[in-house]
Amino acid sequence: MDEAPREFGFNTRSVHAGQRPDPYTGASATPIYQTAGFVFEDTESASAYFNLQEYGNVYSRIMNPTVAAFEERLASLEGGVGSVAFASGLAAQAALFFALLEPGDRIAVAKALYGGSTAQLNHLARKLQITVDWVDMDDPDGWRRAVTAETKALFAETIANPGGNVLDISVAAAVAHEVGAPLVVDNTFATPYLCRPLEWGADLIVHSATKFIAGNGTTIAGAVVDSGTFDWSNGRFPSIADPSSAYHGLRFHETFGVYGLLMKLRSETLRDFGAVLAPFNAFLLLLGLESLAVRMDRHVANALAVAEWLGGQAGVSAVRHPALPDSPYRPLVDRYLPAGAGSVFSFDLESGREGGRRFIEALSLWSHLANVGDTKSLVIHPASTTHRQLSDEELAASGVAPGTVRLSVGLEDVDDLVWDLERGLRAARDSAVTA
Amino acid sequence: MNEFQDRRTIQQIVHNARTVAIVGLSASELRASHFVGYYLQRHGYRVIPVNPNEERVLGEQVYPSLHDVPEHIDVVDVFRDPSAVPDIAREAVDAGAGALWLQFGVISPDGARIAQEGGLSVVMDRCLKVEHARLLGRMHWMGFDTGVIAGSRNSG
Q: How far apart are CA A360 and CA A384, in angstroms?
């Protein structure tokens, strides 16, 4: 005890944070506490838990020890004070925005965004009477022009899906803090191994843990991580600083200090939304985080090798990988993503919509499916799937060309991945000849 | 992290303290000071309320100031406006307390210095309840980062 506590490194925390050997059985793996409720010690303890006077397990819709082990490990890796897990990435985002925003508020959001998030924000805007101000994240003055006196949050992805735009985190954070709003960053594509936005001034992180965190494409999950550094008592967030009518007048920020937002997010928002992460899914996410660093190194190397190879192929008109030397995002990659820019990127086929379809049909190793961040290599052609209803003009407006193909590069041998892509490109070129 | 948030100091106070005088302990169950006092009692600490406006809080006799407390104090835990801290720090030194602990937002470098020069350990802008829950309690059940890393049953 007289020894200074050690600051453990990222890899050690990936394997150990959040989990201790089970004191009762000695189990080395995190037990899966597959239980709805927890037996109270006595009536005094029960009421202390319900009053939030003591940290205790009550009901797995609010907290669960297996889920908590995942939450603590993710918070440790991101450098936050804590985390609340949710049933999906979109559930995490919806809950966070619901906790932060009041009717009449505005949120500034990067236009280059996962389509599911764009749809969610438009939906929330209609239902909650909030206004979304869409921002060109590549414009150095974009954030400053977008914020107003009503802006209560700024939101963007570290690496945008599918465009690969890289967020200048420090710039967005500076604007956010000038107006007294938190910067929320979706760190799904980078993971805390490649970038920790909290270290660059972001206040909150959201994750689709379905992707690289789970790692194997087995689990739908999400989480919010809080830096604990935002001042919720700045007069702009009465729902966090003022007495809560949903919690008998409790002031979350005063009572729980740096943990106030997360306490509210758990004991009010998650409690009422009910989009809770299942204990078994949390167990799979813990396994995923244990190998995050080694997997990400391979993902990064494979993706860059595939991107470089694609750049030299006939029939390919553009490769948008942010770490390529000619990418406009290369300086931001050097600053924020020195260990690599992830493994999801897109490229364009000269042969357009029909070429994209032929390309996908000719592949036999890459999986054609709507996910990213798997050990397996995944491919999707937006113009014939997610964006199929759009005209070429509408496609262009959403930043997708008719021949755009998105790849999520897995952990296979690069030679095998390239062998399959070669067959796809040949089919796409043939379609251009016959068309 | 400033010099008054030293992890070893926090660890030693949480592990070794037995008697905690809480300056500004409120009788209202909704105030942060009451949350902390209630929690510390539950975990076996002797809580001595210090507040000129109350008589009994959490079942304990309340003293108007630290000068009036008739027993040894391990930790003086402060929930007051930062401007009140230098005087409280002097009283804590006079009382021979072991440590001065300033809660979230109670930031007084002057007060901290006075206590430190008087031989007390000092922690500032941290919560005693949270640090106990982090190191010895159940805070990990709420998804908070406790900083505890343990692969064997010897640790902690």
A: 10
Say if CB B134 and CB B144 are below 8 A apart: yes
Domains of chain A as residue ranges with CATH:
10-289 (3.40.640.10), 293-434 (3.90.1150.10)
Query: What residue has token string 């959040």?
Result: A18
What single string gives the DSSP state of each residue in A355-414?
HHHHHHHH-SSSEE-S--S-SS-EEE-GGGTTTTTS-HHHHHHTT--TTEEEEE--SS-H
| Residues of chain A positioned with their CB less than 8 A from the CB of B144 | 71-72, 75, 81-82, 259, 262
Cβ–Cβ gap A2/B8 under 8 Å: yes
The full DSSP string for B88-140 is HHHHHHHTT-SEEEE-TT---HHHHHHHHHTT-EEEES--HHHHHHHHTSSGG
Do A257 and B130 count as a contact with CB atoms less than 8 A apart? yes
Q: How far apart are CA A54 and CA A72, in angstroms?
A: 18
Radius of gyration of chain A (CA): 23
Segment A334-354, tens digit of pLDDT: 999 999 999 999 999 999 999
- Give the integer Cα–Cα distance in Å for A386 and A389: 8
Q: Exposed, middle or buried, A109 (CB in 10 Å: 0-12/13-18/19+)? A: buried
Helix-strand-coil split of chain B, %, nearest 5: 40, 20, 45
Which of A214, A204, A168 lies closest to A78, judged by CA?
A204
For residue B7, the chain A residue with the least C-alpha distance is A5
Higher-pLDDT residue of B75, B135: B75
Which two three-digit tokens encode residue A12? 């050690």
- The pLDDT of residue A162: 84
Q: What is the ipTM of this complex?
A: 0.90
Which of 106-145 (B) contact A at CB < 8 A? 127, 130, 133, 137-145
Domains in chain B, please, with CATH? Answer: 3-142 (3.40.50.720)
pLDDT for the residue B1: 47
Enumerate residue ranges in chain A where pLDDT < 70: 1-2, 434-435
